[in-house]
Each structure stands twice: as structure tokens, then as C-alpha cells.
Amino acid sequence: MLTLTLPPKVTDRAFARLAEIAELTGDARPLRVAVEGGGCSGFQYDIKLDDPTSDDLVIEKDGVKVLVDSVSLPFLENAVIDFTEELIGARFVVQNPNATSSCGCGTSFSM
To answer: Within 10 A of 76 (CB to CB), how many other CB atoms are there?
Structure first.
């Protein structure tokens, strides 16, 4: 049986914010979204500007790139990477259908 892993999706709002960051700061490096062990729920997201490596999945729109490494990819299957602005601040967020629970901070989850 063939099993396909669907890559995460990146919203137009997230791509637009990345383009703004590059324009404002001059740092046009891609956004890396990774999953690491730790956090209060078992796994946590590591979201930062970073240089690409040879095993990265590259999601690109209008020259703006988001990277996901091959180890993190199964944890982010069908996830949505977005940018949100709320009273508590603005940040990139991951809406992950694979997470069975998450903590209040939104950066830690369990599967």
C-alpha cells in the first residue's frame, strides 16, 4: 500500500509577512519550521529565519520561502503555517491536525 505524506501548507498571510520582514530588515533568509523534542507537551515548534540545507522541503511563493527539514516533515503532515496578530502579539503559528493536545503557549504539542 502506498502512503503519501501531504506537506504543510503556508498561508498567503504568512508569505506576505515574510516578504515584509525581508524588506524591513534586509534579511531575506527563508523561514524554517521545525519540530523538536521538549516543551511542556512533548514536542515543540522551532520557527526562525535560517539557511536551507540539502534535505529541506522548500515551499515557495513569489520568491519567499519556507523550509521544513525531513525529520520534521512527518510531524507537520497537512499542517497549516500561518501568521497571526492578536492583542498578545504577532507571530507565526502552526495549525497541526496531527497534534492530539497542545499547551496554552501554542508552541508545544503532543501526538
So the answer is: 25
